[in-house]
């Protein structure tokens, strides 16, 4: 059951964190305290060994695929996730099982509008992997720039740059970048500049515009969502990426020109959402 999965996840995380040492109380919230350099080195070595085993033996087994995906959840330090992504950069397409790829194919063909069981599993893994929804809505943390840079650089590769080729990692990558585009559009000008540079790098050479379409569409849907938490984001990612139009709306000739319009649309969506929720006048975010 979902409850059993949650308990199991907590139990596994306890193997890697001494909760008496790595958490402190701050009012009603708990904050992580940085692990010691010795502990971090041990974690680095462990995830590296896991990746080596996956490369040598594990990619053929679904349970190993799910295990590697577990180490990409937000409960682990971003540096460990970066190690995993970089080590497996040529095998990220194998982080999706054959059954899941077939189910993604069903969804892409348009023959179903419901979330099939295997897509439901991917959606749950996305929920665990993402750091949260909109930080302004659920008080979640922003993601490390180094992690976002890594995701963007890997997402543009041929083995990952479509849902058909990248599978789970495509959903994971577009979700992370969309979440941070949305949050940066409201609160962080430096974050916006970084996102724009990532977009430029991803489309260098005149390709990957469909990825930008998905990222912008996910960000806009998240801004419009009345809850805006990680559950909503995981659902939005699957719905948009698995049911997108085949042709990219953003192209080399228009995406840079419409950058300001994209940001305005995101800000207006968030402002309108706040107005509906709070029955107040929209914030002036332009």
How many whole angstroms does the radius of gyration measure? 19 Å
* Helix percent band: 55-70%
Order of helices and strands: HHEEHHHHHHHHHHHHH
Main sheet? 2 strands, antiparallel
Strand order of the largest sheet: 1-2
Shape: globular
Count of beta strands:
2
Question: Could you characterize what this model shows?
Answer:
- A two-stranded antiparallel ribbon has the order 1-2.
- The chain contains 15 helices and two strands.
- It is 65% helix and 3% strand.
- It is mostly helical and 286 residues long.
- It has helices spanning 2-16, 19-22, 37-56, 62-70, 78-87, 98-109, 117-129, 135-138, 145-155, 163-166, 168-187, 189-202, 209-224, 230-242, 259-278; strands at 23-26, 29-32.
- The model is unreliable at 1-7 and 18-31 (pLDDT under 50).
- Helix 7 crosses helix 14 (230-242) and helix 13 crosses helix 14 (230-242).
- Strand 1 and strand 2 (29-32) form a beta hairpin.
């Amino acid at each position: 059951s979902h409850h059993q999965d949650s308990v199991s996840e907590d139990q596994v995380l306890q193997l890697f964190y001494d909760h008496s040492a790595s958490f402190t109380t701050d009012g009603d919230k708990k904050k992580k305290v940085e692990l010691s350099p010795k502990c971090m080195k041990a974690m680095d070595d462990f995830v590296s060994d896991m990746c080596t085993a996956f490369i040598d033996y594990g990619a053929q087994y679904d349970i190993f695929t799910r295990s590697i995906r577990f180490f990409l959840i937000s409960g682990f330090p971003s540096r460990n996730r970066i190690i995993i992504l970089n080590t497996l950069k040529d095998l990220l397409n194998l982080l999706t099982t054959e059954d899941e790829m077939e189910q993604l194919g069903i969804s892409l063909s348009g023959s179903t509008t419901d979330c099939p069981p295997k897509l439901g599993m991917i959606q749950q893994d996305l929920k665990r992997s993402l750091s949260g929804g909109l930080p302004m809505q659920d008080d979640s943390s922003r993601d490390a720039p180094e992690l976002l840079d890594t995701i963007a650089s890997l997402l543009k590769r041929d083995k990952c740059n479509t849902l058909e080729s990248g599978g789970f990692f495509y959903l994971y990558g577009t979700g992370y970048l969309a979440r941070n585009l949305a949050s940066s559009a409201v609160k962080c000008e430096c974050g916006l500049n970084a996102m724009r540079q990532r977009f430029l790098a991803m489309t260098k050479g005149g390709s990957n515009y469909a990825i930008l379409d998905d990222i912008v569409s996910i960000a806009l849907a998240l801004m419009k969502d009345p809850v805006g938490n990680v559950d909503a984001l995981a659902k939005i990612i699957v719905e948009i990426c698995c049911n997108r139009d085949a042709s990219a709306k953003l192209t080399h000739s228009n995406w840079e020109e419409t950058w300001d319009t994209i940001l305005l649309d995101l800000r207006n969506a968030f402002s309108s959402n706040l107005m509906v929720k709070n029955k107040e006048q929209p914030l002036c975010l332009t």
